[in-house]
């Protein structure tokens, strides 16, 4: 058994994938658009057929699944955060700066009792990230 995050970007999935490719080196493993579904009635009634029904993305050693979901226009990631552990401080600074572009930092990278650098931010899609150097 294992748990994988599944994120719904509500119409911004393609933009999110491109952003995460640049920011954290995300690699698309699989991607299917609503128009590619053998069950055309599975798409939300108001969804553009070009929107992403399902994508599997690899970030480091982790798999994250993504979709445009119901294409409501605004993703809501309340109560959810992705924790990104990196190997050194230079990498923490690089990914923090990349992820916060267009977003909002709420704890800058700083030394903590559990990590030489730890910081928190909300990215441009409203997804919270915790970036830390593995101790």
Protein described:
The protein has 135 residues and is α/β, with parallel strands linked by helices. It is 18% helix and 36% strand. It has helices at 13-24, 89-100; strands spanning 6-8, 27-33, 52-59, 62-67, 81-86, 104-110, 118-122, 128-133. The strands form 2 sheets. The chain has a 4-stranded mixed sheet with strand order 1-4-3-2, with helices on one face. Helix 1 packs antiparallel against helix 2. The longest helix has 12 residues, at 13-24. The radius of gyration is 16 Å and the shape is elongated. The relative contact order is 0.20. The mean pLDDT is 94.
* Count of discrete alpha- or pi-helical segments spanning 4 or more residues: 2
How does the helix and strand content classify structurally? alpha/beta
Rounded to the nearest angstrom, the radius of gyration is 16 Å
Low-confidence stretches: none
How far apart are the termini?
A: 27 Å
Quaternary state of the chains: single chain
Strand order of the main beta sheet, please? 1-4-3-2
Bulk shape: elongated
Q: What is the number of beta strands?
A: 8
Main sheet overview? 4 strands, mixed
User: Roughly what percent helix?
Assistant: 10-25%
- What is the arithmetic mean of pLDDT? 94
Percent of sequence in beta strands: 35-45%
Q: H/E order of the elements? A: EHEEEEHEEE
List keywords for this structure.
135 residues; alpha/beta; elongated
Secondary-structure blueprint of this entry?
Blueprint: E1 6-8, H1 13-24, E2 27-33, E3 52-59, E4 62-67, E5 81-86, H2 89-100, E6 104-110, E7 118-122, E8 128-133
Parallel strand pairs: 1-4, 5-8
Antiparallel strand pairs: 2-3, 3-4, 6-7, 7-8
């Amino acid at each position: 058994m294992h748990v994988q995050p599944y994120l719904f970007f509500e119409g911004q999935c393609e933009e999110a994938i491109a952003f995460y490719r640049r920011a954290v080196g995300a690699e698309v493993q699989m991607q299917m658009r609503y128009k590619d579904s053998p069950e055309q009635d599975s798409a939300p009634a108001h969804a553009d057929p070009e929107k992403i029904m399902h994508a599997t993305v690899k970030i480091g050693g982790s798999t994250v699944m993504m979709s445009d979901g119901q294409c409501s226009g605004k993703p809501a990631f309340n109560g959810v955060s992705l924790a990104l552990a990196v190997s050194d401080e230079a990498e923490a600074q690089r990914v923090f700066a990349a992820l916060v572009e267009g977003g909002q930092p709420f704890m800058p990278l700083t030394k903590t009792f559990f990590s030489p650098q730890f910081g928190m931010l909300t990215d441009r899609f409203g997804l919270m990230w915790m970036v830390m150097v593995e101790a």
